[in-house]
Write a structure and sequence with these properties.
The protein is an alpha/beta fold and about 350 residues long. The chain has 10 helices and 13 strands. The longest helix is centred in the middle third of the chain and has 22 residues. It is elongated, with a radius of gyration of 22 Å. The protein starts with 6 loop residues before the first strand and ends in a 7-residue tail after the last helix. The structure holds 6-O-phosphono-beta-D-fructofuranose (F6P). 6-O-phosphono-beta-D-fructofuranose binds next to strand 10.
Amino acid sequence: MKPRKSGRIGVLTSGGDAPGLNAVIRAVVKTAHSRGYEVLGIARGFEGLIGEPDFKVLASADVRGILPLGGTILQTTNKGHFSGQRVVGAEGDPYLEAFENINRIGLNGLITIGGEGTQRITLELSRMGAPVVGVPKTIDNDLAGTDRTFGFDTALQVATDAIDRLHTTAASHNRVMVLEVMGRHAGWIALHSGIAGGADVILIPEIPFDPQKVADGIMAREQAGSTFSIVVVAEGAIPRGGQLVYQAEGRLGGISGILTERLGEITGKDCRCVVLGHLQRGGPPTPYDRILATRYGAAAVNAIADGITGEMVALHAQEITTVPLEEACARVKTVRPHNDLIRTARSLGIAFGD
Ligand code: F6P
C-alpha cells in the first residue's frame, strides 16, 4: 500500500475500559492533525459502525484535558453485536455492516483500542480488506505480541496499594486477609502486586492450588511467629480438581469468599476477604500508562500514514514496533510456571498453593 499524505482516520475503544484509553485518543488526534488527517471518534466501540454510523469529528478541543482521565470519552461496548464467532454469509452479519460503514464514511485507517476480543474483531475486518491498526489495552496484560498492554501498570498500583492497606488490619488483628484481584486467564496482576505488596500466598489461574497447602503455609508462618498472612488470589484461580467461580453468568468472581471460608475452617484463624473488582480499572492512569498509551496512539497514526495496516502496535524490549494482528490473536499471554517472577517469589518463600 502506498503511504498516504492525508485523509480520515477513525478511532474507537472497545471491550472493558482501562486507564489510558483517553491518553491514546489524545495522542491519535494530536499526531493525526500534525500529519494532515481528520479524526473521527466512533462511539461505543464497533457498535458505532452498526446501522447509521455513530461518530463525531474530534477537534483539538475535544481532547484537551483528557490525558489524566480514566474511562473513555468515546464510550465502549463489551461484545455487543460482535460476540461469538463470525458466520460468513449470515443475515445481518455485523462484520459486513461495519466494513461497509468504514468505506461509507471514507476511513483511510481505523485505530481499534482494546484487548484480545477487540483484536480478533480487528483481524477479521483486516482480512476483509479494512485498513485497521490495533492498540493493545487490558489491565490483565494477557495480550500476546506485546510485552505490555496499557492499563496494567495502573491496576498494579491499585492492587499493591490495597495489599499495603490490608497489611495493617491483618497485623493488628492477627488475621488472614484474602484479596481477590482481576485476571481471567492470566495471573499477571496477582503475581506482580503480590510481590510488590509482600504477600505470603499468591494464587493464579496458571497454577491450580490446594486449599490445604495454603492453610499449611499459613500455619507454618504462625509457628515461626508471623501471626497474620496476606493471600492474593486472581479471580480466575482454580482449586485443584475444581472449577472457575462465577458471580453471574459469564462474570467471574467469588473465589476469595470460598477460599476464605475454607481457610477459616482448616486453620481456625479469623479470615476476611476483599474483592477489588472494577476499582482496578478506574481512575487516573499512572505516568507509565500515560506514556505507553501516548506512544501507542502516536505509533498507530504513524503506521497508517506509512501505509502499514493489519498490524497491532506493540512494545518489544522498551521499543514501540508493530506486529501482525494474527500474532496478537494467536494465544492468551499467560504466566509460564518457570517465569523468573515465579522463581523470585518462591525464593522469598511466597507460596502458590501447589
Ligand atoms: O479483561 C479485563 C477484565 O477486567 C477481566 O479481568 C474481568 O474478568 C473482566 O474484565 C470484567 O469485565 P466486566 O465486569 O466489565 O464485564
